[in-house]
Structure formats: structure tokens, C-alpha cells
Amino acid sequence: MPIYEYVCPACGKTREVIQKHGAPAPDCPHCGDEPMTKLLSAHRVGASKGACGEPMVGACGGCGVDRPPCG
Questions:
Q1: What pairing do the DSSP bridges indicate for beta strands 14-18 and 3-7?
Q2: DSSP the chain
Q3: Which residues contact 55 (CB under 8 A, 6 or more apart)?
Q4: For position 47, what pLDDT does the model report?
Q5: 8: exposed, middle or buried (C-beta count within 10 Å: 0-12, 13-18, 19+)?
Q6: Rounded distance, CA 1 to CA 49, Å?
Q7: Contact 2, 19 (CB under 8 A)
Q8: CA-CA distance, 71 to 61, in Å (whole number)?
Q9: How far apart are CA 44 and CA 68, in angstroms?
Q10: CA angle, corner 44, sides to 56 and 30, nearest 5?
Q11: Strand 37-38 vs strand 3-7: parallel, antiparallel, or unpaired?
Q12: How many Cα atoms occupy the beta-carbon half-sphere of 69 within 13 Å?
């Protein structure tokens, strides 16, 4: 299940919640006021690996590993 980040419009506290997609917003556990507002969060993207098995940084020859350039 995805992790969503919410903020309370009344008290400003934030909270991460594991919930199904489309589930209703939770009420604030701090002040018990209205439902929290979902924040826009960045997601993690994995890096591609070169032939040497190390993550590619820019052009594969400059990955910083003490080996010949990936190719």
C-alpha cells in the first residue's frame, strides 16, 4: 500500500499514513479537527546501472568506480 503525507489545515501538523489508494483523508490525531489535506510528495526513482553494476552518473564513464568505463 502507498504512503501518503497529510497536513492539518487547522494546526499545521503533518503525518504519514499507509492506506489504500482512494481512501478518505484521516482526521487530525493532534487536534481532532477536520480531515487532513493530502500533500504532494516526490516519489523515489531507482538509478540505472551500467555494465560494471554501479549506478550510472551522467555518462557511464564517469561513475567514479576504479574500473574501466562501462561499455
A1: antiparallel
A2: --EEEEE-TTT--EEEEE--TTPPPPBPTTT--SBPEEPP-----PPPB-TTSSBP-SSGGGS--SSSPP-
A3: 47, 48, 49, 63
A4: 59
A5: buried
A6: 27
A7: yes
A8: 8
A9: 29
A10: 155
A11: antiparallel
A12: 7
pLDDT tens for 14-65 read 999 999 988 999 999 989 878 999 998 666 566 566 666 666 555 445 455 5
Q: What is the pTM of this model?
A: 0.55
Domains of the chain, with CATH numbers?
1-41 (2.20.28)
Amino acid at 60: C
CA distances to 10, 14, 26, 36, 58 from 30, in Å: 10, 10, 11, 11, 45
Q: What is the per-residue pLDDT for 51? A: 64
Q: In what order do the strands lie in the sheet with 14-18?
A: 14-18, 3-7, 37-38
